Amino acid sequence: MSASEVERPAGAEETWSRLFWPAVVVGWVVIAIGIRGVLIDAADTLPGRWLVLFLGSAVIHDLLLAPVVVLLGIGVAKARPAWARPYLQGALICTGTVVLFAYPFVRGFGRQANNPSILPLDYAEGLVIVLVVVWVAAIGLALVHRWRMTRTTGA
Amino acid sequence: MRSPRDLALRARGLLPDQHSFRSPLHAQRPAAYLGMALGVTFSICFVTGVVSHLHQNPVSWLDLPARPAGLYRVSQGLHITTGIASIPLLLGKLWVVYPQFWARPVVSGVASAVERLSIIPLVAGGVFLLFTGVVNIAYWYDPMVFFFPTAHFHAAWITIGALVVHIAAKLPITRQVLGGRPLPDEPEPVHDGLGRRGFLLTVGAASATLVLATVGQTFGPLKRLAVLSPRRPDTGPQGYPVNKAASQAGLDEETLRDPGFRVAVDGDVENPMELTLDELRAMPQHEVVLPIACVEGWSFEARWRGVRVRDVVAMAGGRDGAEATVESIQRVGRYRTSPLNPGQLDDPDTLLAFELDGEELHIDHGYPVRLISPNRPGVQQTKWVNKIVVA
């Protein structure tokens, strides 16, 4: 059975806090303040383009990034040996997030010839360093786990 | 022949639903813990973001204080660092609750419909804020056709509003988690993959990794670890970074080294005047140690030497409690002027500075003269100052 949040034991009612409806009012007033700001400052925000990137953020996550991660996860869930799998999964999660963050730095899109203090580092090297640390830690933890398992089994 | 309704039902049958996701990590407790962490980090980002917005867009009913001098450095460093830390938290949280995206029935009542509708601005806003924040500190402006600070600021209100609704919707489950009560999807089924606890630790480790790889741009002791930070506090002209070089502001050596360079003081003063650099240097000089704290989260502290702005304004006959706009010789750019409220103008550490760490300013640091003032964003530490308009 999946552990989704909408599932509950048969016959159980959805429970809503007494604060829910007051929070809906407050929350949507705050949302309206934000929308009003986007529209009032239209010269800066370019509302049409802003909306495309705003909603596009959710669409790209939900229909592209998440499905890719799910598919990768299905593949990794079959990885052998089984004792190493959690550490492989952990290392891949760290790798994915670090690579996503580092991408614009590694590509150096923002470099400016007349201001070398902007993006002054070799970010490809930085990324490799971080990933080496992540994988060494994951392999180390996996080996410790394996060693403990062997010791327990042998005892 | 099949009816459109049959085809629609058949297509729907091909789509996943909440039961299609088998990983035991799609569970309530990790969702709740990650949600609580994000509630904290997004709240910090929102409050520090509003502070930064108020610095850059002052309002008449609130004069921001000039003290503590390093407050903006801390608050903006916190804004960027907390935002970076939120990236793995948000991705982890969205992955844990991803089956919800496909959940059917789509809604189960009015409250459920409102809750799901409010999820759209929450997810879109969360991803939008972190994405635009990262590309902005990476100086990668192509994905953003709009003006980043304004677009980011208003999106933050939308996201926080949606977060208020979401927190209230999840209060019952949060209470259960905090009360240590078992949840319907517990205990975790036995499996040999990454467990729920291990997943949370991994997400935390990913957050810590990103923070350690970047925070050195504002927190000096960790600068050697900052292998992915967009700036180094010790790299740039005179050993310090700059946001905008003189050439980027359209200024050349000839203009800035013109012996006729003057600083005008006018507006609401008894004796409007134009002061040469020698006249300014003949006034009492003061040395202060103040940070430059950029909106992008990097900062450094340095020794500055120059003349107090309040002395200059007093010499021109400005009244007590005056405020002023400091202007740069640069002709275009949103940040070519910056306002000084009465407290900031009167602060003894608010200087027109000529020297940085005992040396004449490099032109990229604002030669011949720049503003330096406590508790302000770097973009308001106006460089190449040639005018003070008192009001």
Helix content of chain B: 40-55%
Choose one word for the global shape of chain A: flat
Element pattern of chain A in H and E: HHHHH
- Main sheet characteristics of chain B: 5 strands, mixed
Query: How many beta strands in the DSSP annotation of chain A?
Result: 0
Report on this model:
- The complex is a heterodimer of chains A (155) and B (391).
- The radius of gyration of chain A is 24 Å and the shape is flat.
- Chain A has helices spanning 20-40, 42-45, 47-76, 85-107, 123-154.
- Chain A has 155 residues and is mostly helical.
- In chain A, 28% of the residues are buried.
- Chain A has five helices and no strands.
- The longest helix of chain A is centred in the last third of the chain and has 32 residues, at 123-154.
- Chain A is 71% helix and 0% strand.
- By secondary structure, chain B is α+β, with helices and mostly antiparallel strands.
- Helices cover 43% and strands 14% of the residues of chain B.
- Chain B has helices spanning 4-14, 28-56, 71-96, 98-101, 110-137, 148-169, 171-178, 196-212, 253-256, 277-282, 309-315, 342-346; strands at 262-267, 273-276, 285-293, 299-308, 324-328, 337-340, 351-356, 359-360, 370-372, 385-390.
- In chain B, the strands form two sheets. Chain B has a five-stranded mixed beta sheet. In chain B, strands 3, 4, 7, 8 and 9 form a five-stranded antiparallel beta sheet that branches.
- In chain B, α2 runs antiparallel to α6 (148-169) and α3 packs across α5.
- The interface between A and B is large, with 87 and 106 residues.
